[in-house]
Amino acid sequence: MESSSGSSSNTMTSDRVADIVLDASGNILSTGYFQDTVDFDPGSGSFSIISNGSLDCFVQKLDARGKVLTCLPRG
In the chain, how many domains are there? Predict the structure, then answer.
């Protein structure tokens, strides 16, 4: 998860992953919150989402290789 400012989620930003779990198929599910524009693709691609307000929550699903399957924002 990378914000539009180029800072990653492990820096002092408002973008946070709250929980990560694996499903029975090995897919990676995460939830957390973000603000502004964030690229939810951990690879070289882009899966950018713009928040609707100050902080929006999200549920993201990656396959076992880390490819984005979906990311659902709520806010």
Answer: 1
